[in-house]
Every structure is written in structure tokens, then in C-alpha cells.
Amino acid sequence: MMRQYELVERVKRYNPSADEALLNRAYVYAMMAHGNQKRASGDLFFGHPLEVAAILTELKLDEATIAAAVLHDTVEDTEATLEEINKTFGPQIGALVDGLTKIKRLDLVSKRAAQGENFRKLLLAIADDVRVLLVKLADRLHNMRTLQFMPPEKRKRIAEETLDIYAPLAGRMGIQEMREELEDLSFQNLDPEAYEAITRHLREVTAKAEKLVEEIERDLTAKLQAQGIVAEVSGRQKRPYSVWRKMERKSVSFEQLSDIFGFRIIVGTTDQCYRALGIVHTTWPMVPGRYKDYISTPKQNDYRSIHTTVIGPGRQRVELQIRTDEMDQVAEHGIAAHALYKEGVNDNSRLANESRAYQWLRRTIDLLAEGDNPEEFLEHTKLELFHDQVFCFTPKGRLIALPRGATPIDFAYAVHTDVGNTAVGCKINGRVAPLLTELQNGDEVEIVRADGQTPPAAWESLVVTGKARASIRRATRTAVRRQYTGLGRQILERAFERAGRPFADDKLKGALPRLARASLEDVLAAVGRGEMFSGDVVRAVYPDYKGGDGMVRSDKPNGGGKDGSGDGASSGIPIRGLNADMPIRFAPEGGAVPGDRIVGILTPGEGVTIYPIQSASLAAFDNEPDRWIDVRWDFESGPQRFPARIKLQSINEPGSLAQIAQVIADHDGNIDNVNMRRRTQDFTDVTIDLTVWDLKHLNAIIAELRAKRVVSRVDRVTG
Ligand code: MN
After folding, report:
1. Looking at 9, 77, 84, 293, which residue is catalytic?
2. Contact present, 592 and 717 (Cβ < 8 Å)
3. Portion of the chain with pLDDT greater than 70, in percent
4. Which has the closest alpha carbon to 569: 534, 525, 521?
5. Percent of the chain scoring above 90 in pLDDT
6. Taking 80 as the threshold, does the pLDDT of residue 65 lie above it?
7. From ligand 1's centre to the CA of 139, what distance in Å?
8. How far away, in angstroms, is 94 Cα from ligand 1 center?
9. Is the predicted pLDDT of residue 549 greater than 50, yes or no?
10. pLDDT tens across 477-519, in order?
11. Per CATH, which fold does 642-717 belong to?
12. Which one of 20, 43, 76, 164 is the catalytic residue?
């Protein structure tokens, strides 16, 4: 196991001013936390985070990343808490460890269900600091290196995941060496036979071709030198996985696969790259269609190189990459090398400058969001997509993917419609939170439920998922119907009472065919809505009843006398006589205009009052969810005006009010009422009720008023 001083030394080798004390603290803390925990191999667990840290020192990462690597399993696997990590190591390392803990939980989740795509999205969404991804990649690399201790089923799953997610991720981040190792290790575990066969063949070919590689290297070096180009030429065999992929892609056998050698020609300048290319092409015949110039057209991840394939000595196809030293560093070590190169290679202290280290980290994040071919462009698009998503968990660890901006209400409906309909509160990460909280990636959400609830209609305009919206609409419709049914029953009970006939559900059911309704509920709701007259119902149940052809008329004399309310039928019983058109009015204090998000408040007997959703008056109805009615504008701004109210602060000078009125008139607003109150020596408050076509119109007027010198401020008033 790596000793404490070894870890520090590894970091100091590339970063002499590294925070030694921090590394020591992390080492001791993780060692104590993991204690005697063992890995599947039987080794002490603590060896694992150290190996992960060691891998990252090879990438020359900053000490915060190294410390986070040492600590990466403490929160999930030991008694250590995030609070403690934050306190001991500061918020930066705390955030890294937090990200790693969340990703680790994701591992557990993905085991349970095939949520691969979500998994990948969440991985990237959680890792808003690319260093989290780097530690995760190193973690995965070490786990892959020690995979043989795992049971076969687990091995297969982890290898698949590595090949699908982690290896490509390493590639995108420019860490090709790590990508190749991850690929080979996955391949080895997923298809041990094919892996064995290919490595055996590769060994044989190498034995035969050793001379060939040397020959080509020597030959090329000499030819370039003759033209005055000092070049470093190196040949290498391809990796087993890349050979395998090529065999699969081209459906060729290993014997047919000739270009299993790649040569790299490293020169000093870009100019020399092209001169070297000329020499190569005049020495050996080139294979058509294999020439690519990534120097004149670099890949978006800044990869630059010339690729070509020639028929070399012994009719052997040879792949060649020609590039400068700087281009080579970028290709091998990712964007880190690129940034370092630009700033001068020989100054070791440059890494002490943390902000520079961050620059390339940040750039790597940007790179993750870019692509360099159509396939990667798709990936890029997907990446954008997941920036529009948040991923949350149920307390049992189920992953729920939601659009960004989603609330616990959306979450509840995503889990189950019943959960949404009965939601009354929630806990986010164990803490009670409002149902309108915007959810964050990795949140664990627990919905508090109460039976017999109806979701407030106002929720419909606050949720972001279609499922929640549709369910809320359905549930509120049901609630509204229930309300009409109740009203209908009241109306009928009184009507039967006045007619002197007993009212009973059974009797009413018997009359359903005569009323042409399917159920008792239908009749009650129809009466409640005013679509059916109570007198008709009485006559349907008691055909002998001669109470006239309508309750309104026949009731009048009796009704007036009975409850002393004059026109008892219409004033005593609300909504009677209405058809489906509810009387509608607009919020008396401020109105509402098309373009506003609106909600209706039902006042039995009066109808519905329309409020903009932001109206303060709505608070008064918070405890009466049954009165909230889902309403929407069902017309475009048409030939109708709507009331609105604005409040201005105007400078006290002659003619200022005239100027204000002029602006409104010029913009086709109608002033209904003006209220003025002098506030100070200099200012007057002016409240104006006006009518406008829609919100856009109103906003245009407000904007124009704001531009006036005599107006110091303008606000819209909404109840
Ligand atoms: Mn780990």
C-alpha cells in the first residue's frame, strides 16, 4: 500500500508547491475512516482510494482532486459525513466528495434497473465540476484493474457499463491512454475468449514483425533526416479492443486485418509535418481514402495530426500519424497538456497557479459539450438535453428524471398519479420543503400524502411536466364535478320539498330513462350546473305532479313566502338558472388581461372571478382548494378589451398628468379611472385603471411610460 510520504512525493514531483498538509490530512482521515474494511480481493479497502489517487497523479492533477480521490468513498462507505468533510477539508473538496458520493449512489441504482441512458445523463449532470468525473474515471479504472475478484455477473455488468459510458467519456476528455485501458479491460471481461485469441495473435505477429517495425522506423528516420527533418519515429501495435472493433466493423478475420501497426512521426513544426508527409508518400504508395488532415481542420477537441496509410515494406499496410510534439501531447494527455504547452513547458511552478489549472478543467467541461463529428454532435445535443433535466431519487432509490424547473409536485405525479393527487407536502434530502421548490440534481424526494385531497387547480400552471398537468386537470375537474353534484342535490332537495314530494336516490334512479341521463350523478351535476331544471326532475320522478312546466314560475309564490327572500329560487339557491356559462368577472383590484396566467375563484351564487396567478388576493383562498377553478384564455387578443391597473410615481410639475394620459392614449389604451395622491413635495402617486387588448399591449404602455421623464416609476397592480 502506498505510504503517506509516497503520495505527497508523487504530487510534489509535478507540483512542488502542493499543499502537503492537506494531502497528509486526507490520507490519515481516509485511513481512519476505512479502518479494517476489506475489498473483495481481501486487501485492505484503504488501498483502493490510494490507487485512485495515484492514477490521478499521473494526470498531474491539482491537490484538491488528489485529496478528493483519497476521500472519495468515505461518505458512502464509512461513518464519515459530508458535513465533517466540509469542515475538515473545506467546501471545494467537500463539493467534489459530494459529487462522487452521488455518482456512487447512482451505481447502486443502475444495478436495479436498466437505466443506462439516464445513468449517463445523470453522471454528466451531477459532475458539474469535471474533476469529479476525473476521479470517477480513475476510480473505475482501478476497479476494472481488480475486477477479477468480483462474481461473474457483476463483472459483466461493470464491464458493459465501462465500455458504454466510462471509456467513451475518457476519450472525450482526451485521456486516450485511459480510454484504451478501460476498453481492453472491459473487452477482456466481456468476451474472454475473443480477447485471448486476439492477444495471442498480436503476440505472434509482433514476434514475426519485430524486425519489420524496426526496419520501418529506421527507414523513415533516415529518409526524413536526409531532407533535414529531425523526427522521432515510433511504431506500436494496436490495442486488442481496437483490433477487435475493426474486425467487427469490417467483418474481416484477423488474418485479413493487415494494418495492426501504427507509426507516429513526431516533428518540430507544422511545416515539417507536411514535408514529412510528402516524403512518406513518395517513398511508399498511399492507400486511397485513408488520408486525413486534422492539422488544417482540427477536431473540436483540438486534436491535430495528419493521418495516412501506406503500403510499406513487405506489402504490409502501415498507418501513420504525423504531428508536432505539442500536438502529440494534446492527443495523449488531453487538454491539460495543451494548456501547459501554451504557457511554456519548462516552468514547473506554473502548476502552482491554481487558476491556470482551472482554466483547462473548465475548458475540458466545454469540450464535453462539444463534438467533432456528426456522431459526437448527436452526443453534444444529448448533453444539452440533460442540462435541461434533473435527476432525483425516491427514498427507495428509484431514479426519476424530470425536466429542469420541475417541482416535487411533478416528482409526485411522475411516481404515481395517486401520489400526486394526495400530495400535501414533501421532504427534500430529509428536510421539509415547500412543494414548489425547484428540484436539483441528486435530490432525494419524499412526498408527504394525505387521503381525500384534491390538488389545487393552481398547481396546473406551476408544474412543468405534461403528466402532472393532465392529472391535475383531471383531478380538479372531478372535484368541480363533485361540487356541482353537491349543489344539484341541494337544489333538488329543496325543489322536492317545495313540491311536497319525498326525495330519494332510489326514486330518482328509476326516472333516469325519462331524464335521458346515465347516472344519478349526471342528473345532480346537470342540475348543479343549471343545465337541467329541478322542476323537470320532479316531474320525471312524479309524473302526476302538476307543478307547472318549470320550477322557476311555480316556485315563485311559494318560495317567496317561505324563506322571505323574495325571488327565493334565484337568490336563495346559487347557480340556478345558469347554463354552462358561468358569470365571469375580473379581479376588482387590478383586473386580468390575456397573456396573464390566470386562475378562477368560484363564489357560489356569484360565479367566477378571474385573477392573475401572481395576485396577492389569492392568498385568501389558500385554504379552500375546492374554489380554485382551472381557467385559461381561450382566445387570442381579439376585439375585446380587458381591465388592468397600473401605479405610477410622477414628478410634480405642470402638465405631467397630461403627458401620462397622452402616452396611454397614443398607445390605444383606454383610461377608465385615475386616482391621485400626493406623496411628497416632489412626487404624486397615480393609480390608473385602464383597458387594454392583452399583456403585450399593457407592457408596451408601461414601457413607454417608464421612458417618460416625468414618470419615476411604473408598476402593474394585480389585486
Ligand atoms: Mn471507489
Report:
1. 77
2. no
3. 78
4. 534
5. 21
6. yes
7. 5
8. 16
9. no
10. 777 777 778 778 877 888 888 888 888 888 888 888 888 888 8
11. Alpha-Beta Plaits (3.30.70)
12. 76
531 is catalytic: no
- pLDDT 10s digits, 327-385: 887 777 664 454 443 343 344 443 333 334 344 444 544 544 443 433 343 333 333 33
Span(s) in the chain for CATH 3.30.460.10: 193-336
Tell me which residue of 600, 577, 575 sits closest to 587, measured CA to CA.
Answer: 600
Mean pLDDT, residues 677-695 = 85
Gap from CA of 475 to ligand 1 centroid (Å): 46
State yes or no: is 259 an active-site residue: no
Cβ atoms of residues 488 and 525 within 8 Å: yes
**Other CB atoms closer than 10 Å to residue 269's CB: what's the count?**
12
Give the span between the Cα atoms of 544 and 465, in whole angstroms: 55
Q: In which order are the strands placed within the sheet that holds 445-449? A: 431-433, 423-428, 445-449
533-537 CB contacts, 8 Å cutoff, 24+ apart: 534/491, 534/492, 534/494, 534/495, 534/576, 535/495, 537/492, 537/495, 537/508, 537/511
Determine contact, residues 158/125, Cβ cutoff 8 Å: no
**Tens digit of pLDDT for each residue in 148-184?**
998 988 898 889 888 877 887 777 666 778 889 999 9
Spatial separation of the C-alpha atoms in residues 188 and 516, rounded to whole Å: 73
Q: What is the pTM of this model?
A: 0.50
Paired sense of beta strands 306-311 and 431-433, if any? unpaired
**In 3D, which of 547, 573, 583, 560 has the Cα closest to residue 489?**
573
Q: Looking at the chain, which residues constitute the CATH 1.10.3210.10 domain(s)?
A: 4-192
Query: 560 is written with which cell numbers?
Result: 317567496
Residue 562 to residues 343, 490, 548: CA-CA distances in angstroms? 97, 16, 18
Q: Which fold has domain 193-336?
A: Beta Polymerase; domain 2 (3.30.460)
Distances (CA, A) of 521 to 409, 489, 524, 575, 625: 30, 9, 5, 17, 22
Q: What is the mean pLDDT of residues 581-601?
A: 79
What does residue 298 show for φ and ψ, rounded to 5 degrees? -65, 155
pLDDT greater than 50 at residue 89: yes
Q: How many Å apart are CA 335 and CA 322, to the nearest integer?
A: 19
φ and ψ at 72, to 5 degrees? -60, -25
Sheet holding 683-692, edge to edge: 670-678, 683-692, 642-651, 711-717
How far is CA 588 from each of CA 218, 420, 629, 689, rounded to the nearest angstrom? 92, 33, 18, 10
The class level of CATH for 4-192 reads mainly alpha
SS3 at position 287: coil
Pairing of strands 423-428, 445-449: antiparallel
Question: In the chain, which segments carry CATH 3.30.70.260?
Answer: 642-717
CA of 243 to the centre of ligand 1 (A): 30
Instruction: Dig out the grid coordinates for 200 from the structure.
Output: 495471442
